[in-house]
Amino acid sequence: MFDILDSIVGKTNFWVELRFHSRKALSFRAENGKLSNASTSIYTGVGVRTLVKGCWGFASTSILSIDGIWKAVEEAKSAAEHSDSLKKKKVSSLPASGLARGEFRPTVTNDVSAHDVDEKITLVLDTEKKAHAISKHVISASCVYSEMIDEKYIVNSDGAHVHILDVKPEFRILSVAAEDGEMQMGYASAGVTGGWGELFKYESPEELAQRSVRIAVNKLRAKEPEGGEAIVILDPSLVGVLAHEAIGHTVEADFVLSGSIAKDKIGEKVGSELVTLIDSGKASIDPKAAGLTLVDDEGTEARDVIVIDKGILKSYLHNRESAGIFGVEPTGNARAFTYSDEPIIRMRNTYIAPGTSKLDDMIKATKDGYLFKGLGGGGQADANAEFMFGVLEGYKIENGKVTTPVKNVTISGQAFDVLKSVDMVSDDFEWGLGAGYCGKIQPAKVDAGGPYLRCRVKIGGSQR
Questions:
Q1: Are residues 126 and 214 in the same domain?
Q2: Do both 19 and 164 map to the same domain?
Q3: Which residues 6+ apart lie within 8 Å of 54 measured at CB?
Q4: What is the pTM assigned to this prediction?
Q5: How many CA atoms lie within 13 A of 284 on its CB side?
Q6: 216-232, pLDDT tens digit by residue?
Q7: Cα(288)–Cα(275) distance, rounded to whole angstroms?
Q8: What are 424's strand-pairing partners?
């Protein structure tokens, strides 16, 4: 493939970028004893970007001959030329620092390709069946296994020349428990970059099923919390949701240019000195993260971006164009979901760095508060960093001890105010959002996580 791409780029007298992308994807779902969905797909093509007179042009093709790709190049060039009279702000520079060359692949233990379709179907059927057997209260369950295997070649006029291999499997199980007319849901998942070994490194399929059932059954006997502001301890999953949804999107440079709350705040205090927030392509803290992006879709090698350093906002997340606008180096955050998508600024693996406290000590130091775990029932955040998230699992903390479970919990607030309230950060670390996708314009596999974090938030519940 390099031969074809190199020959086309070498013959153009304008800037061009060619991105070959082949994806093999499959998904199997078991529901109430039956296989309810089975899908496999393979799609391959080339995405073409041109830059002519400061204007972008984009086209794509699934015709992989030289003639087919040349036609897409001409279409992209024509689109750029037609934008010339319409675009007020044109691209003045594309920083070339960090462009990658060579082959990049993740660590894979026990390749998913070594497990055939029958084994994967049996996995979801058996795990769903086990969920029913764990408790008499389980009335419904569903289990999903899916995977994406990607191969990319990226070549551009500035010298990017990379071959990328990537594997992202995930596993999810949802259980519904009922008692005396009440129903509650429990959920557990794993999503990684790597193989079978990475996917089930910390919990087996059966253990994930047990966790989902335990959450559902515990909530059957739970009460709603009192509404109002409270001291809470958030688990790594919810810390990841806060880092990604409520903060990460506000520092994506395209959103910053559109006026997000993070605009013009570089160098300002936006959190407690205990808070350091990082977006990492290589996920150096734990490289099995589902958003592992060794090289982005502009051919820029990934690096760690310290977004917040001990409470001070230090950086935005950039593609090459926004890096030129801000006069900084690209951060490797340009990503496209398929060959027919244009690269846009996206997070990769966003997390708050571990601190020095022990979780037990954080609980003991909390006289009256809550321990919350996992995202439940969805959530939302806006450009002003205002957020509201549903909580999957919650427990009351009384006099330094975790006591009764609570249910139907939402937490809300202004994310930077919440970060300023942080007074304890544990020395643990977990990725918590590996299953699923971020949905900014186009899907993207991401991950997010962190330690346990003690802070103040508003809780939705019964009135005091």
A1: yes
A2: yes
A3: 84, 87, 90, 91, 92
A4: 0.96
A5: 9
A6: 999 998 999 999 999 99
A7: 23
A8: 454
Residue 93 to residue 321: CA distance in whole angstroms: 7
Q: How many beta carbons lie within 10 A of that of residue 386, not counting itself? A: 15
Give the whole-angstrom CA distance, residue 272 versus residue 455: 10
Residue type, 438: C
Cβ 26 vs Cβ 40: under 8 Å: yes
Cα-based angle 154, 155, 158 (whole degrees, multiple of 5): 130
Helices (H) and strands (E) in the chain, counts: 10, 22
Cβ neighbourhood burial of 417 (10 Å; 0-12, 13-18, 19+): middle
Helix, strand, coil share of the chain (percent; to 5): 25, 40, 35
Q: Could you tell me the residue range of the domain that residue 143 belongs to? A: 2-220
What b-and-e string marks burial along 12-36, b requiring 16 or more CB atoms within 10 Å of the CB? Answer: eeebbbbbbbbbbebbbbbbeeeee
* pLDDT for the residue 462: 55
Instruction: Give 31-63 pLDDT, tens digit per residue.
Output: 989 999 999 999 999 999 999 999 999 999 999
Q: What is the CATH number of the domain that holds 158?
A: 3.30.2290.10
Which spans in 38-169 are helix H?
66-83, 117-134
User: Largest Cα–Cα distance of the chain, in whole Å?
Assistant: 73
| pLDDT under 50: residue ranges of the chain | 463-464
Considering the domain architecture, whether residues 216 and 236 belong to the same structural domain is answered as no
80 with 97, same domain: the answer is: yes
Identify the three-state secondary structure at position 348: coil
